[in-house]
Predict the 3D structure of the following.
Amino acid sequence: MPISGGKVPDGRDAGFISVLHAATESRPDEIDTIVTAKAVAGALSRLGFATEIIGLAPDLRGIDALPPRRPLLVFNLVDAVGGNCRLAPMVPARLDALGLAYTGAGTSAWLDTLSKIGTKLKLAHAGLPTPDWSEDGTGLDPEAKVIVKPIWEHGSLGIDPASVMLGSDAARAIVERTLRWNTEHFAEAYVDGREFAAAMMEGPNGVEVLPLRETIFQGFAEGQPLITDYDAKWTPGSQAYNGTPRRFGIEREEPALAAALTRLALACWDLFGLDGYARVDFRVDETGAPFILEVNMNPCLGLDAGFAASALEAGLSYEVLIGRIVEASLGRLQATA
């Protein structure tokens, strides 16, 4: 069912696809996953698939009820289980054990990118640029700025303007924030510059990088760090949220930088053995040098999220985006049959 050109297939007999999440209603980022599951299920229904949303409990028992229903595919939206990102790889692992096909990256890629430190180690070993870091805050330039981040969590959880500080304060902040958020933190060199995201998905001719998205920082107070923190993603009406619009057009305006970011994004796809769709986040310093911040296996697919915006910029409607993800997963299934 080729849909790369924007055609929505007639899938009246296409089969059953379950939409899986393990989110709670405890935080805005978790609620967004539930909203996204409804959006994905709606798109699948419009594409002609039978579908059902399954919200998993921490014991993941809902997965065990799937094999008798013989789903064509499981659309895996799980990026945390009960708010804990460290548990997310349990879902593809369980699906693998049951022989169920699913969207997105496989278990090994999840395990390779779950820890931000583990991701950075693999990037550095491959010679790909990523900001310097310290697990305990020692060994950093005390006069240089750093950002203290959670090791395991995604969606900017635990990140706020005070996360950016001098290296001399990092060790203390790592201990304090680890206790406050009940999850380990580390320090990373703060790249003072621009921020980009490369959304990637499998197409008819292999992986494609969708139009690169830049986050614009506007209306921030002088001296305030220009970062996409938790409020910027999940608190509508806040200055951080309103002051971080997205823009496109770097491919036309700065082709050399666009080519460098595209090359690095594709290198990450190959290095981590990604499948289906993914996103790589970058900062670009004042000299124009790019640095890889994160490799996201399961980027948000909400209707208003950056991934869908990049797809729309490429001429792909939301239904076609979801259909392309399904098509890629089914293509891999047929290739290994």
User: Anything to note?
Assistant: Residues 28-46 form the longest helix (19 residues). The radius of gyration is 20 Å. The chain has a mean pLDDT of 94. The domain at 16-104 is CATH 3.40.50.20 (Rossmann fold).
